[in-house]
Amino acid sequence: GTITSVDTGRKTHKIGCHLHDATPSALVSKEMAKLRCLSDEQVIELSGYLRQAETMIGMPAEIEWARDEIGFKILQVRPLQMEDTIISDENWANHPGLRGHPAGIGWGSGRACVINCECELSRVAPGDVLVTQVAGPSLSQVLPMVSAVVTELGGSTSHLASLARERGIPMVLGVLDATQNIPDGTQVAVDGVAGVVKWMEQ
């Protein structure tokens, strides 16, 4: 295989082992945050496993994986659910917006619920568009009730993005400064295919 481009994700924390590390979650330096997690050789090796998975199920697939000192472990394989590009509602065309990494499915709108801490998840109401910093596992508990999700960190290959695709929930990840730019309570539209988020100015 050949790597055509590299887009390094933003990493603010590193997660260690709860059994062996005194501080399992810690901030990383700016230098470390810019480093790639995988070398070119490892990316090509992983892509080979993906191609094998697609051959086995006979369709495009997404994989969840882990890696230790021995090598890669394939944790899960699922059919890749993607939709064609959606032509957004013209009513949103002239409103402010941001771009990010699309999860690949759906278009939705609703009231923005801007969350800066997981302790605020109880504020999320049915039909809200959840706007938050990190696409962490705790968000899975509110996925069934929201109309869309916008996160500042994370990417389209994250576990939460996979869950959103499975449930048909529009999601855009890696949207810089979303929690600062999108006013809490405003109406928001999320294009989970094009990776565009727009909101009504208050």
Give structural notes.
Helix 3 (159-167) links the parallel strand 9 and strand 10 (171-173). The longest helix is centred in the N-terminal third of the chain and has 18 residues, at 40-57. The protein has an eight-stranded mixed sheet, with helices on one face. The protein is 17% helix and 27% strand. The mean pLDDT is 83. The chain has helices spanning 30-33, 40-57, 159-167, 178-181, and strands at residues 13-15, 25-27, 61-67, 72-79, 97-99, 101-102, 107-115, 129-132, 148-151, 171-173, 187-191, 196-199. It is built from four helices and twelve strands. It folds into two domains: 13-79, D-amino Acid Aminotransferase, Chain A, domain 1 (2-Layer Sandwich); 90-199, Phosphohistidine domain (Glucose Oxidase, domain 1), CATH 3.50.30. By secondary structure, the chain is an alpha/beta fold.
Layout of helices and strands, plus pairs?
Layout: E1 13-15, E2 25-27, H1 30-33, H2 40-57, E3 61-67, E4 72-79, E5 97-99, E6 101-102, E7 107-115, E8 129-132, E9 148-151, H3 159-167, E10 171-173, H4 178-181, E11 187-191, E12 196-199
Query: What is the CA-based Rg, rounded?
Result: 18 Å
- Determine the N-to-C terminus distance: 49 Å
Quaternary state, please?
Answer: single chain
Let me know the average pLDDT.
83
- Helical amount: 10-25%
Strand tally, please? Answer: 12
CATH superfamily heading of the largest domain: Phosphohistidine domain
* CATH topology category name of the largest domain: Glucose Oxidase, domain 1
